[in-house]
Design brief:
With 384 residues, the chain is an alpha/beta fold. The protein contains 17 helices and 11 strands. The strands form 2 sheets. Strands 4-3-2-1-5-6-7 form a 7-stranded parallel β-sheet, sandwiched between helices. The protein has a 4-stranded mixed β-sheet with strand order 9-8-10-11, covered by helices on one side. α16 packs across α17.
């Protein structure tokens, strides 16, 4: 049976992994919408290859180029924020939410409002608007399938168990390229060094987040919204081999873990086939060759990001949205060579020290908080 699918953020790393799986199962999927921000040539090529119904660029300035690239194909084109949400709201069996950053929030909300099934990789949407997003999921009877590898692992470890029996959930973290670096070394870390992740091949923003450990901080908040646990039931454990993707401990003392290769096609395939399983090109995990799995407590002196995220989650209200926005602004500035690596979390911490607004109650309020926090973070960056 052919199922329909839209991929938001089709030109990115998660988009590429998803499309690779679709390519291997040609007859199984009908592609409806593919979206990007500005990379028109890549988007047009994918839209042609998968014979999409519509291709959308979020940055409207690129629409004429997209129209030209797809003229004569019969593939519809559109541009801008409203068009992105309209495309996300088209009825499909599955929406893969793989836009990076809070920019993905409104399109995810549009897919949720339609009551769809959403494979959610876009963690920033959940961090910025966790309560609003999850209550919309409930109201519209939508389904969210956790696609982030750790959350997908937890999702799998929860299957067949009662939530009341959960004692704790542990998110594993590779520790990133600077796991063993001293504070002094971290102060000198370059863009190129930070972009060289030891285990995962991902987009630039999440790769920097992995190097600062903010990725794990965002995932901590993401887990809090996705799973029925309190903040004090969530733990973080550094596991450099990235083989154990996360664990759930039950009250009888049993801990269930999900293991697999460090390749996002595994959790994406789990979402695409859910509640069944599908073939992937992954080789079997060779634990004898890996030999050793090691685990360490996180060091929040050198990597304060997980503490900042935990504190933001404990404060609640708008704090997680401010944390996320300040981090997005700081990572963009680091990637542009404007601030040092170790200043990323300094900017986030100082932004969070501003007077944080009340908790948002609507998408519009979240977007306003996000925009204001970016302005504050950019102001602070001039003085770090
Ligand atoms: P990439 O940077 O590789 O891709 C991002 C995608 O979003 C691209 O299609 C990009 O379009 C699009 N995009 C960027 N900015 C905007 C915008 N303002 N409006 C609309 N679309 C936009 O990111 P990743 O694939 O690495 O990550 C995507 C999401 O998945 C993130 O939230 C990340 O945290 C999460 N994730 C990623 C993992 C990974 O392995 N990569 C693992 C787990 C989670 P364009 O190409 O035109 O710029």
């Amino acid at each position: 049976m052919t199922r329909s699918i839209s991929i938001l953020g089709a030109t990115g790393s998660i988009g590429a992994s998803t499309l690779d799986l679709l390519r291997r199962n040609r007859g199984a999927w009908k592609v409806v919408a593919l979206t990007a921000n500005s990379r028109v040539a890549e988007l047009a090529a994918l839209a042609r290859e998968f014979d999409a119904d519509i291709a959308v660029v979020a940055d409207e300035r690129h629409l004429p180029q997209l129209r030209e690239a797809l003229s004569g194909t019969g593939i519809a084109t559109a541009g801008g924020a409203a068009a992105l949400c309209e495309a996300s709201a088209r009825p499909v069996d599955m929406t893969v939410a793989a836009i990076v950053g809070c920019a993905g929030l409104a399109p995810v909300m549009a897919a949720v409002a339609r009551g769809g099934t959403i494979a959610l990789a876009n963690k920033e949407a959940l961090v910025s608007a966790g309560d609003i997003l999850m209550s919309a999921v409930e109201r519209h009877k939508a389904t969210v399938l956790p696609t982030d590898s750790e959350h997908n692992a937890i999702f799998q470890c929860l299957s067949g168990n009662r939530f009341v029996d959960i004692r704790s959930i542990t998110l594993t973290a590779s520790g990133g390229p600077f796991r063993a670096w001293s504070q002094d070394q971290l102060a000198t870390a370059t863009r190129e060094q930070a972009l060289r992740h030891p285990n995962w091949d991902m987009g630039a923003k999440i790769t920097i987040d992995s190097a600062t450990m903010m990725n794990k901080g965002l995932e901590f908040i993401e887990a809090y919204h996705l799973f029925p646990v309190e903040l004090d039931q969530l733990r973080i454990l550094v596991h450099p081999q990235s083989v154990v993707h996360s664990m759930v401990e039950y009250r009888d003392g049993s801990t269930l873990a999900q293991l697999g290769p460090s390749d996002m096609r595994v959790p994406i395939a789990n979402c695409l086939a859910w509640p069944e399983r599908m073939e992937t090109p992954m080789a079997s995990l060779d634990l004898a060759a890996i030999g050793e799995l090691s685990f360490f407590a996180p060091d929040e002196e050198r990597f304060p990001a997980t503490r900042l995220a935990r504190e933001a989650a404990q404060s609640g209200g708008a704090a997680p949205a401010v944390l996320n926005a300040a981090n997005e602004a700081a990572v963009a500035a680091f990637l542009a060579g404007k601030i040092a690596f170790s200043h990323i979390t300094v900017v986030v911490e100082r932004t969070l020290q501003r007077s944080i607004p009340r908790g948002p109650t609507s998408l519009e309020e979240v977007l306003e908080i996000d925009a204001n926090a970016r302005v504050w973070a950019n102001e602070l960056m001039e003085h770090v």
